[in-house]
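Box S1 | Example of a co-folding query
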Amino acid sequence: MKKVLVTGGTGYIGSHTVVELQQKGFEVLIVDNLSNSNIEVLDNIAKITGTKPYFENFDLSSEALTADFFSRHHDLAGIVHFAAFKAVGESMQKPLSYYRNNIQSLINIMDNMKKYEIRNLVFSSSCTVYGQPDVLPVTESAPIKKAWSPYGNTKQMCEEIIEFTSNATAINAIALRYFNPIGAHASALIGELPLGVPNNLIPFITQTAIGKRECLSVFGDDYDTPDGTAVRDYLHVVDLAKAHVVAINRLAGEKNKKKMEIFNLGTGNGYSVLQVIEAFERINNVKLNYKIVARRPGDIEKVWADTSFANEELGWKAEIGLDEMMRTAWIWEKHLAGKA
Ligand code: UFG
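Box S1 (continued) | Returned holo structure for UFG
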């Protein structure tokens, strides 16, 4: 059985990817320091797949702990690296912890990949590297704009570290640039677990609908978009998780055409904040309390993916539509509140 290490495997996208990997026959090892996730995720993964993944709790930004792990586990078909801090606003307040955590952990992992000849790396990147693109839909060859946040900057820097290192070593890599992942597993056993007040739209919507938050603030209705609210390319987290399995198989099967390849992962459709709210209310038959407020500083106006490269070259296509994203997000919130 092929072994894959998933860093950040108890997190939101990580846990869904672990499930998809296990269901495709991979043996999965997880490393996570539980800084933004919960140990119970492991049991919930086991409820879905029948197998509890091997787990170690430590911080990959520690050189010594990472070296110790790899000295014991290096017979790996590949690594999917999710473990990172991901809150844009927080990164503005704590830039150095973002750089230290996100950059150092990648360096530690790649050092050990080199040492133990682990050849295949899938990296969790973001459409944030494009900033506000000049041309929509955005292709992988769109210019990388100056980052708006330390978080976004770490994604840009990590991509560059991977590119130069893969060219200089036996490592092959795929960076996946996610657009906006939302929704939850159909089992309602795993999903997003935001700590404190959510920054992202969908957890704020579901927490408002369930009564944990009073009112959703819609940030700006004066953008140059059809209804004035900002537009994003939302994709279902299970579709996104499946792309990682395809990427690992591509690398393990030596089907990659370059040492480092980059793919956009989105649906190719842009939806406005008001369209998302409309879909949520309609599909779940719930009324949402919301109000329009000022724009959120740092937000871009609109972005959606050109997915043709991922569709044609990677052989992956998002299949789940906005309604299903909203339905599973709501079931997950009700499950968390003990109402589902
Ligand atoms: N929004 C609201 N109210 C809220 C939260 C969000 O109106 O309470 C709006 C935002 O202004 C934005 C849209 O909903 O227009 C989506 O916002 P999110 O915070 O859910 O997502 P972002 O597009 O801002 O950020 C996401 C990821 C980041 C990543 C970025 C790349 O969370 O990690 O995409 O563009 F960097």
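The mean pLDDT is 97. The pocket of UFG is lined by residues 86, 88, 126-128, 152, 180, 199-201, 204, 216-219, 230, 232, 273, 296, 299 (CB under 6 Å).
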